[in-house]
Amino acid sequence: MGHHATVISSSEKKREEALEHIGADEYLISSDATKMREAADSLDYIIDTVPVGHPLEPELQFCEEKGLTTLIQVVKMDYINTAFERLEKNNVRWFVVDVAGSKL
């Protein structure tokens, strides 16, 4: 789609997969402060897919400095049917289901 994609990970384990199989243009190790600083001005969007709790301060600081805001709406499980209805009506583009915060 013409984007320059950078994968940021905590280790070298996924480098080959990211570059050769997924097609990322760059691969950075998140603990390499120098490389992360160098890349900061080249990032327009961040898609955070980490499935566990982790500090968001570096990302939140980056977003604040760049004036970036979220495109998602967080919803609880009891709102899921309404969320799908809104999606069908194109009333919302992205939503994330807060399973942990929902009463199941």
Give an overview of the whole structure.
The chain folds into two domains: 6-55, no CATH class; 70-104, no CATH class. 34% of the residues lie in helices and 17% in strands. The protein contains four helices and four strands; from the N terminus they run βαβααβαβ. The chain has helices at 15-22, 33-40, 57-66, 80-88, and strands spanning 6-9, 26-29, 72-76, 94-98. It has a two-stranded parallel sheet. Strands 3-4 form a two-stranded parallel ribbon. The longest helix is centred in the middle third of the chain and has 10 residues, at 57-66. The model has no long low-confidence stretch (mean pLDDT 82).
The radius of gyration computed from the alpha-carbon positions, rounded to a whole number of angstroms, is: 17 Å
The percentage helix is 25-40%
Element string (H = helix, E = strand) = EHEHHEHE
Main sheet makeup:
2 strands, parallel
Structural class category: alpha/beta
Low-confidence blocks of residues: none
Strand proportion: 15-25%
Report the mean per-residue pLDDT as an integer: 82
Strand runs, count: 4
Shape category: elongated
Number of domains: 2
Measured distance between first and last alpha carbons: 39 Å
Strand order, largest beta sheet: 1-2
Count of helical stretches: 4
Protein name: Cinnamyl alcohol dehydrogenase 1
Domain Alcohol dehydrogenase-like C-terminal: 1-79
GO molecular function: metal ion binding; oxidoreductase activity, acting on the CH-OH group of donors, NAD or NADP as acceptor
Pfam families: ADH_zinc_N
